[in-house]
Amino acid sequence: MSVDTPAATEITSEELADLVGVPLKRTADKARSRLSELDRWWLTCSPFCLVATSAADGSCDVSPKGDPPGFTLVLDDVTIAIPERPGNRRMDGFHNILANPRVGLLYLIPGRGDTLRINGRARLVRDAPFFDRMVVKGHQPVLATVVEVDEVFYHCAKAFLRSRLWQAETWAPDRMPSRARIAKAFERPGDPIEELERYYGPQYAERLYGRGGSD
Description:
Blueprint: H1 13-20, H2 25-28, H3 37-45, E1 48-54, E2 60-66, E3 73-76, E4 79-83, H4 92-99, E5 102-108, E6 115-125, E7 144-155, H5 158-163, H6 179-186, H7 193-199
Antiparallel strand pairs: 1-2, 1-5, 3-4, 4-7, 5-6, 6-7
Helix pairs in contact: 6-7
């Protein structure tokens, strides 16, 4: 899609390397095809990842996944499994995986600027022996995303350092309206704001693993 931006100068693929530069050989060659012991260790410490998918038509989705550290199971050196917990039931990423199994994963550890990146091919499973190892607060996941690793490598901390993401003195969560007010504006305009504030209040965390509704 072309956007009319007269003041912008669009680059072409031929110009990209001249503008940005080329990676050092150690950077270009750092992707590996199997998980190392350090990668396994990282996964045991990470409570959060982002899962990027794309549909057959090229439309994209990025979905956050989080659970206690170690929620991603390492099944072997080339296979991991991510449990699915109750959410909004849109299933955008899952529909994408059914059409195009290629996924990109970004694993974070709070306070760390470097990240672990895994690219691979995903499939959805509804039952497997390892589901018993994914129980949290008595709840087993209804399904899991099994990823066969194609590439794994670490990414540097520059973006986190520039954004000062983990520096608490930069945090300003109240700069934006509350989650309840955003829901009122876009998703649940007919609900009283008082009801929404209660719904997204302290008890919201108590419904993380149940089958009750979600936003």
